[in-house]
Amino acid sequence: AGKTTLVKILLFFFTAIILFPYLPGADSQAFQGISVFAGILISLGSASAISNLVAGVVLTYMRPFRVGDRVKVADTVGDVIEKSLLVTRIRTLKNEEMTVPNSMVLSGTVINFVVQERDKPVMITTTVTIGYDAPWRRVHEMLVAAGLGTESIEQEPAPKVIQTALNDFAVKYELYAATRLPHRMLETLSKLNQNIQDRFQEAGIEILSPHYYVRREGESLGVVSRPE
Predict the structure, then answer these.
(1) N or C: which end of the chain has fewer CB within 10 A?
(2) Positive or negative, the Cα torsion across 177, 152, 157, 148?
(3) b/e per residue, 39-57, with b = 16+ CB within 10 A?
């Protein structure tokens, strides 16, 4: 559809250029002056439109995404619902319709989760901090088990855990898990976090995210009180 529209626009301008010398009064200075003035107005008033049009042409032939693909444009994640020569429309995870000028799409960073999924699974991540009193090998096992027990998480490649920091009061663990359903990434991440909470609570290990302050004697697991 984009290529058909582009061909029509090019044919229109080509036809207009050919017919211009045959228009009545085309050789008069007044007609030429009006033509120059109209050209200047169009140039000044449509600079952004022309920029978006050129970007739309480039995107048509680059094909970084298709309608229906889940993409990340700048900081926004959503599904492409329309592509045109001037703008790209995306339906966000909050069911909001966002219109992005093609010049911004072309100049920014675009991540296509669906294209990535065709070659290999999409990786989702979540982070927890656990106290030093919990054996790190046990923490790794529980995080991997939580990942394997989550719907839409691939068994192969299996989830993996990386310890990204040794903070003052806790160790920071980051879990990487693969999924082949990029359109359900938000739901999958939510279920993964729920499984992590359940497993650590059953094991009696407290998740200290984001910070640990103090736990008074007699408080239930997971209830952290801050000093006054």
Answers:
(1) C
(2) positive
(3) eeeeeeeeeeeebbbebbb
| Rounded Cα–Cα distance for residues 221 and 44 (Å) | 65
Question: Measured between alpha carbons, how far is 117 from 148 in angstroms, rounded to an integer?
Answer: 19
In degrees, to the nearest 5, what angle opens at C-alpha 91 toward C-alphas 88 and 94? 145
- % of the chain surpassing 70 pLDDT: 70
End-to-end CA distance of the chain: 63
Whole-number Cα distances in Å, 65 to 52, 85, 101, 102, 116 = 17, 14, 15, 13, 11
Beta carbons of 201 and 222 less than 8 angstroms apart? yes
Which residues pair with residue 168 across a beta bridge? none
Helices 185-203, 136-148: crossing angle, 10 deg rounding: 140
* Packed helices 29-45 and 47-62: angle between N→C axes, nearest 10 degrees: 70
User: Has this prediction a pTM greater than 0.90?
Assistant: no
The whole-number average pLDDT for the span 136-155 is 94
Separation of alpha carbons 17 and 8, rounded Å:
14
